[in-house]
Design brief:
Blueprint lengths: L2 E8 L7 E6 L6 E9 L2 E2 L7 E7 L5 E8 L5 E4 L9 E10 L5 E3 L3 E6 L14 H27 L3 H19 L2 E2 L10 E2 L14 H8 L1 H12 L9 E7 L9 E10 L3 E2 L5 E4 L5 E5 L5 E6 L5 E4 L6 E7 L8 E3 L27 H20 L9 E7 L9 E10 L3 E2 L5 E4 L4 E6 L5 E7 L4 E4 L6 E7 L8 E3 L24 H9 L7 E6 L18 H9 L2 E6 L24 E5 L5 H7 L11 H15 L4 E5 L14 H20 L4 E2 L1 H4 L7 H7 L16 H19 L5
Parallel strand pairs: 1-3, 2-10, 31-32, 31-33, 33-34, 34-35
Antiparallel strand pairs: 3-4, 3-7, 5-6, 5-8, 6-7, 8-9, 8-10, 11-12, 13-14, 14-20, 15-20, 16-19, 16-21, 17-18, 17-20, 22-23, 23-29, 24-29, 25-28, 25-30, 26-27, 26-29
Length: 737
Amino acid sequence: MNITQKITLDLTKWSVFQYVSAKQGDRSSRFVKITLTNNGAFFKPPAGVTANFRAQKPDGTMILNPAVVNGDGTVTIELTQQALAVRGDVIADIFLTDVDGGILSSVSFVIHVDAVPDGTKTDSTSEFLVFMQIIERAEVAAMRAEQASDHAEQMVGSAADKSFVEKLVAVERARIDQIVAVPHEQTEGNAELLDMRVGADGKTYASAGEAVREQIGGLSNDIKDALKRTNILDINDSVEGYAYNPAIGAGIEKATNAVYTACNQIFDVAQGETYTLNWLYGACYVYNSSKKLILYTYIEAIPHTITIPSDGKYMTIAGSTSRIDNIMLVKGSTLPDHYIDYDILNIKTEQGDKNEQSIDTIHKQVDGLSKDVENVSKRTNMLNIEDSVEGYSYTPNMGSGIVQAENSGYTACNQVFGVAQGETYTLNWLYGACYVYNSDRKLILYDYVDTIPHTLTIPEGGKYMTVSGSTKQKNNIMLVNGNSIPDHYVGYDTLKINTEQGYKNASEIEKLKNQKVLSGVKWAAFGDSLTDKNTLANLPNGSKNYVDCVSESLGLNAVNCGVGGTGYKKANNFVSRIDTIPADTDILTVFGSFNDYEYIESSLGVFGDSNADTLYGAMDVFFKTVTERYPNIVIGIITPTKWGYLTSQSGNNEAQKRCDSYVKALIDTAEKYAIPVLDLYHTSNLRPWNANFRKLYYKDDNGDGNAESVHPMQDAHKRFIAPQVEAFIKGIYAVYA
């Protein structure tokens, strides 16, 4: 019984992947009929055009098979047993070749291969039926030539006969020459078809090997693209508190700079090359052959691409110390989607001697490239050790659920992995354990790890897996799909080069994953004008404040409860606005406020006050009311940032003493209610008393062209406030699987 699925692919525009469903290992039974369109209009391939089907399976092996151009202009492909050998998503397309060698490709589509219930698998290898078809035609041609020769010998009986036969053989040889080229008069091993020597660009090459390499060039380019994802920057080889001298003509010299980090690597570059960097508030320095600075480029937006100017020979980089996480420098004009550690990739893409004429050797080249892709995908670490909790492991009792239990000296990873029967996973967490559960999330296998690396095969009924292990052994932990660990440690989710495996119960896995992120978590940002979205609204240099930046970064569902001019005691005070906090809030932060400054000298009060007549008392009333009214909310207090005219740096010593006492009252009262505090008053890095700093980062409140010292603008929120608030929220709020 044959099953044919119908899809439509456009030749001119990108569209959402179309999916075709199939079962692992099916053969001679599944076909796909494809209607081609050109900008939405039906496209019928011209006469003489041939079609081929190419695909890459989840394990990296390749398919290159012939397709059929039907009389009605549709194209039919067979999903062979090899095309369906590996469960998961197979990325595929078709390409058309005209008589002149031109190639036209369709958009890609996805073949979703479901695993067979009994776990039966077909060994997966690359399949190139296009080449086999060509070889078969060559063998037929050779057979006909041999038959012609035998017939000629039988006919030879006289000189006249011999003359006639020689003419006949000459005709046959001329026909054969149109099909077969025999290099160096050899007749064994290296025969190649003339039509196979025509490359994709229509050029006739000296050998079939060169022409076929044109057909597999796309795969080679995929490998090259993977190599371009290599991070050439080793942030571990750097020194904090320094940058490079930005003076044109200076040598490669480091200069003291308190908030910068200088990378010690010196990169060899050449005129016209491009490099891309994501080190915000960093800089690139390009030097000539005499190691004199010829170009200094400051980075105020990322990613940043630099083109090496004339005479450029060397390059160095430096940047903000607070921004050194996940820094990448790559050659080219784009950054990859995911962060890659320095020198993480070392993939050889050797294609062999271009003069090699053996078709068998070409097969080996393709297999080698496929293995390179497969090796890349298997280097991905599935385990995020940062998403774990110390002092716990999972319950090892058969039939128990996915439950963490106290276990001193152990660490339980909070990830729940979707697995399937027969899959293998390898872990290097010494004295750890793997726990496999069925579809009801009941434990069916407990596997203790006493030697590493440790490989586990998922048993029948296995649906989910968790891992835990010795806290002392958790450095450089890896969990990979397969039976071997890569040569060196790979960071969690470092690589993602089309290696999605997919699971049969994808929606359930996605649900479990979503439980461990802040996407959709509700955050109420409460405070004064530094929180109020109206403070920066419609400014030409940006209207986002820390609330916008943090919610976008963490995926939080933010509710802005900021109102300018308010404080704990000030009119329209925080207590009177508690009702604006949504009842379903998960996280509440309270930021502010020196709007209470006028009460500090006369009404500060003392610790223990519980009446709103004093500042201590007003703070106490607010914290007490919030904690009682919202028992499930995680709360964090943020102290106000310094106001420039109320600091000793501006000569106002008494004002600063009052501000110091206000912040102390806020911290004391927060501690009384066990509420964590982010102390931006002492650690914001904002310097509003400095005129140059104000000009760069503070708002002109009076509209007179002079920046005031109270309200930071968008860049200050993004650079100084948001990163600390983001880390604060991640530190006080976590969801465990």
